[in-house]
Amino acid sequence: MENKTTLFDYTRAELAAGIFVLLGLGALGYLSISIGGLRLLPRDAYHVTARFSNVGDLKLRAPVKIAGVTIGRVESIKLAEFVGEVALGLDRSVRLPKDTIASISTAGLLGDAYVSLSPGGADADLQEGDRIAQTEPALNMADLVGRAAFGTASGASKETEPEAAPAKAGEKGDAR
After folding, report:
1. Of 129, 146, 58, which is closest to residue 90 (Cα–Cα)?
2. How far apart are CA 103 and CA 114, in angstroms?
3. Residue 114 in contact with residue 107, Cβ under 8 Å?
4. Which of 16, 32, 58, 174 could, after both became Cys, cross-link 113 (CB 3.0–4.6 A)?
5. Per the confidence metrics, is the pTM higher than 0.85?
6. What are the CB-based long-range contacts (under 8 Å, 24+) for 35-44?
7. Number of H helices and number of E strands within the chain?
8. Residue ranges per domain, the chain?
9. Alpha carbon distance 162, 9 (integer Å)
10. Residue 173 has pLDDT above 90, yes or no
């Protein structure tokens, strides 16, 4: 004799608990994906590149900002002709002039690195696949602290007071 349970054999409390658990798992999955920065649908973006002599601590999926507002993400970082080439995915609703300046900044003193864009005044806009020509590399905090603490190697000069010219005999101030 087999004892088979059917859907009708469960109580309402058991069904409610099961539905609650499934909804909780679904919410947890959604939050995990959205916090992780993953997108299920591709973002409507156009892609440009920028070359930096030093990308510092810039990471994949770092934000791209104008005036503190995120308008895109870093999509790849690679070495090209001995400089760091960064591919940026920018929101299509934001059109940037060709003379835009890209710089790598940090959020706060020790925060995460991001790409900051400063739009120029050119009439022509950046198009899909264009390269931002003007860039400013990341600042190396250790180098800045060293310069502040020890002075710069090329600009540090020991200031000396000019030697006093020997006084002529018979003039005031002659101690001889």
Report:
1. 129
2. 8
3. yes
4. 58
5. no
6. 37/61, 37/73, 43/73, 43/89, 43/91, 44/91, 44/92
7. 2, 8
8. 12-41, 45-140
9. 103
10. no
